[in-house]
Design a protein that fits this description.
Blueprint: E1 2-5, H1 10-19, E2 27-31, E3 37-41, E4 49-53, H2 60-76, E5 81-86, H3 105-115, E6 120-124, E7 139-142, H4 145-155, E8 162-166, H5 172-181, E9 187-194, E10 201-206, H6 211-216, E11 219-227, H7 231-241, E12 248-255, H8 261-266, E13 272-276, E14 290-293, H9 296-304
Parallel strand pairs: 1-4, 4-5, 5-6, 6-7, 8-9, 8-11, 11-12, 12-13, 13-14
Antiparallel strand pairs: 2-3, 9-10
Helix pairs in contact: 1-9, 4-5
The structure holds ribose-5-phosphate.
Ribose-5-phosphate (R5P) is lined by residues 127, 167-168, 170-171, 224-232.
Length: 305
């Protein structure tokens, strides 16, 4: 087996390779003065199983093109089977038509990825489980929830006195699973309304049956698939604090961290923010309250099977 990495998240690819007792195979990514890329695999892959790791995190367009070319290069060099690991799948939130006249970006991505000839796709914590239906090749959907559960148990011996909170109704499935992993820790969800044109969160309130759990809890553990601007999380914290809970922690898989997310999160009333390394966080986006947990072991385990 040969494992290659695009340029978006080499540290994660290196960790995955190490867990598999492999070294990353070399490839050449040459950038022309106009920004176009020329990709070349520099290891023999004829009749080999090939794994390509590339997160399609910011900047998604550049990272997708690099991924498509890497797959093509491996294919032309004779790779037998190509597994593509996309720890963060860019454009996944535009997975259906929200408003007349829009593109369904995820469908375009799915068609293009499949057209390159990949055999299998491994992804982490998709925004919605239905996203797999956009693909006809096998999609392995891994989750960081067991990694979060383990860290929560290490941090809080009295974790069952916490309440798990989903900052929107779309995340209910996620907190139910985490609740089971944490011996039925109570959970609650927030009803969030976002203005599609501006991206601003217009209102948020607890689901009708949920406020009771929240009031009696010692701390809130907010769980989400991703943090982009940080506005969803901060709106949730502001609401939770009104119930009297002062300890608020966030567990979110993908640190997309756009715009002023660093300032928004660092200056919020959050105690700590836990994310994973599905996306490489640039140094200038890191902040004191941040802790990064690795998904490399989970991915390696899956590649081995
Ligand atoms: C939305 O449904 C997602 O689950 C996240 O809550 C959202 O994408 C986070 O975005 P932001 O950090 O910009 O509020």
């Amino acid at each position: 087996m040969k494992i290659f990495s695009g340029s978006s998240n080499k540290p994660l690819a290196e960790k995955i390779a190490k867990s598999l007792n492999l070294n990353l195979s070399p490839c050449e990514i040459f950038i022309f003065p106009d920004g176009e890329r020329r990709i070349r695999v520099l290891d023999k892959v004829l009749d080999d199983d090939v794994v390509i790791v590339q997160s399609t995190s910011p900047l998604p367009d550049k990272n997708y093109m690099e991924l498509f070319f890497l797959v093509d290069a491996a294919k032309r060099a004779g790779a037998k089977n190509i597994t593509v690991v996309v720890p963060y799948l860019g454009y996944q939130r535009q997975d259906h038509l929200f408003r007349i006249g829009e593109a369904v970006s995820l469908e375009v991505i799915a068609k293009t990825l499949e057209a390159t000839g990949i055999n299998k796709l491994i992804v982490f914590d998709l925004h919605s489980i239905k996203i797999r239906e956009n693909f006809s090749i096998p999609v392995v959907h891994l989750t960081a929830l067991s990694i979060f559960a383990q860290r929560i148990k290490e941090l809080f011996k009295d974790y069952k006195d916490s309440v798990l909170i989903s900052p929107d109704m779309g995340g209910i499935r996620r907190i139910k699973i985490l609740s089971e992993l944490l011996d039925n820790t109570p959970y609650a969800a927030i009803e969030k309304n976002r203005d599609l044109a501006t991206g601003n969160i217009e209102s948020s309130k607890f689901g009708t049956e949920d406020s009771g759990f929240v009031k009696n809890a010692k701390r809130a553990l907010i769980v989400d698939d991703m943090i982009s601007t940080g506005r969803t999380i901060v709106a949730a914290v502001d609401l939770i604090i009104k119930t009297g809970i002062t300890e608020n922690f966030v567990f979110a898989t993908h640190p997309v961290f756009s715009n002023e997310s660093k300032e928004i999160l660092q200056n919020s009333k959050l105690s700590k923010v836990f994310v994973t390394d599905t996306i490489k966080i640039p140094e200038n986006k890191k902040f004191e309250k941040l802790e990064v947990l690795s998904v490399a072991g989970e991915i390696a385990k899956n590649i081995k099977n």
